[in-house]
Amino acid sequence: MSETRTRAEKRGRFAENVCVAALRLTGWRILARRMTAARGLGLGEVDIVAKRGRTLAFIEVKARASEADALESVTGAQRARIARAAEVYVQRHGEHADCDVRFDVMILTGGLWPRRIADAWRP
Question: What domains sit in the chain, N to C, each tagged with a CATH number?
Fold first, then answer.
């Protein structure tokens, strides 16, 4: 793995850890991290799966220099993969079948508190 890739991986893991802490502090229960529906099948990976009340959130975490860069980096193809992974997750975990599902983006741009964009897109 290249040095640039290693740094990006570390920054991404740090951002996920910060987001998990922020979610927990605001009453969310973390159900999964880096959940992969099925490797190699194009079904996607979800950074964080969290639940609060009847809301089940599939959360994509982005650490970027600016909020605009972060939002731009969540492409249509990535959204589709995350939605497919979410579908597989709900099928595997029937106890969440009656939950309201939404897709959030959490952005870390340099400060220590991430910005969460709730219901960032709909599949």
Answer: 3-121 (3.40.1350.10)
